[in-house]
Amino acid sequence: MHVQQFEDDALEDFRAEVEIMSKLRHPNVVLFMGSCFSPGNYMMVTELMPKGSIYDIIRDKTVQLSFKRRMKMAKDAALGMNWLHCSKPVFIHRDLKTQNLLVDENWTVKVADFGLSHIKKQEKPGSRGSYGAIGTPLWMAPEVLQNKPYDESADVYSFGIVLWELFTQQEPFSEVETFSAMVETVVSEQKRPEIPADCPEKLKALINQCWDPEPRNRPTFAEIIPQFDEIIVDGIITDKIGCKMWKKYFMKDKLRESVSWRNFVIALTTIFNEKMPNANDIKWNCLKALVSDDQEKVSIESFARILEWFGPMKSLTILDDIEDLLKKPWFHGEISSADAEKKLGKEKKGTFLVRFSARDPGCYAISTVSQGGRLKHYRVYHKPNLDYLIGKIECDSLNTIVTKYAKELYLKTPCPGSPFQDLFNTRKNVSAGYLVPELE
Asked: How many domains does the chain divide into?
């Protein structure tokens, strides 16, 4: 503990709280293992959370967290908090923040530090438990900042700040420097951190509900938890019809993050009132080559990426666009610039390929061996419903770019080895099996 000297009443309260904590068990609450009450050596032992806190993770530039991962972390935190609020006696955290949300080796988030309210009252400003001149007040509800009576809804306000941090991966109230300024900002002016314009609407609404100035207007964690599945789908699939389809067929009981190719096809044909294709349908096999993995599973992310490249999904004519692109011998699919350079490394000048951009969803890249023998990459910007932009030139298709501007870009010969050409090979290699010689 940061504090090693306690008044008798506080120490007795803490002993009672530790006794209760020792009986708490939940997958999203840090497991209490034991404690020591020897004077000068007060300590607690909990399970090890090797990835540290959310606070540290979202500020680590080397860690890339997808939107889905961040929302699942938020849902884990909400599950832990809901369990504490539903416990008997009720645990009000009083200090919910990203520093107290710890992450295990499987990226599961668990609530920590929920039983230390008596000790924290005795910590001095500037101790290791504080964070800067303001510290914990960054996450405090208005009623707590004013030292008014509060209940579980104060934790919900703090969770709203945590949600904002998880989405933006930034510091809340970074411009506020003193406690009095914090009170002025949050209480008097009722200001909150600015929610970015690209925040999904349902997530934005939830954040605003959580940090509402009126405690009675804030949702409970029981009401918050069911909203995350829909928020995840909205955040990943931006195409309206695609989003509607995934929610309708793959989110009845809980969100299914990946589905079988067969169930995916059934959903897609049903929503457009089309017949199921046969196994040899080339258009569907082209789609399968892009969205299905080795286990014939379609993930929500792979479906969303395809809609970024070929959407909007107004009808199944999207399959024609996919087939048309995969037919081109110069198209190599979703490969990195490093992989493109490996493929082109030993090819002659003018050899080129076109690929999905690994960095910008919906965009493409043209990689070519230039006239001088060096490898060059050209980015083609594209968003659903818009033309294809290379430099300042707009074209209606990738094929137009490749044919019309072949001379300027030095595009002569498609790079061999496109993974899609076998789809269009009508000749079937049929094995005769092992031959048994006829012996005389």
From this structure: 3
